[in-house]
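Q: Here's a chain of 260 amino acids. Please give me its 3D structure as tokens.
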Amino acid sequence: MEVVQEEAFLSKMKDHFFELEQERFLEWARARHGGDFLDEESEAYEALAQEYSDMNDAFEQEVEYQWLQRQSFHEQYIEFSAELDRARVLLRDSANGPHTQTTCKLVYSHSVTLLETMIGTSVNALVLVGRTFLLNMARQIENIHRGKKISLVEIAEHPRGVEGVILKALSEITFHNPATIKTVLVALIGDGMKDLDVSGLGPICKVRHDIVHRNGKTVEDEPIRLTPEQVYEAMDTIDDLASNISRRIFDALNDTDDGF
């Protein structure tokens, strides 16, 4: 009963926020249209709706860019390490409890997400604040996004130009695939990442995929069972890789004139 009531409450809240946003749009659209009546079936209404959506998207992107510009690479790694330590504590405190399996799966998946976030944020921030890294990624982004072609018109139309288009392309990439991590980092850093060993992450990402996308079952429909020791081992592998990547980025920064 409580679950049903909670779902009903969340549904009402969602409808409420949708109505508020619709009211804001209509107020903006009327002012933009000179206060005249707007027919929701008209081309003018559709054009204003698209303009409003594009305006909101641009605002959200600008907020994201400003956040990235405030990021410190060193703080990103420190935050990753701190969060991973908290996850270890959570696992330790739950090791002998009644929900050990659930905790093991949650911590396992969360650890991969922490690595993904650290790498993604670092890559985007480096592109945004370092011209050397921006140029490196500009040369390789179409190879990373196979089949994707970036036109001069797309670059000219984006408020942030080349960096905006590249960051948009990077936002479509997920970093819980070892091959993707290696490809992007080599494109960004060059020789300093070519011998990076990501092989240990492969089996971890496979288990993580089964946990997240198959409700904790393999493709053979076998339930995944994890011990705390297996989770700790995976976390150590993730920690070692994050440390290795961080060191290589630090070395690359020292070899350029870009500050971060």
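Q: Can you summarize the key feature?
A: Residues 102 and 143 are 39 Å apart (CA to CA).
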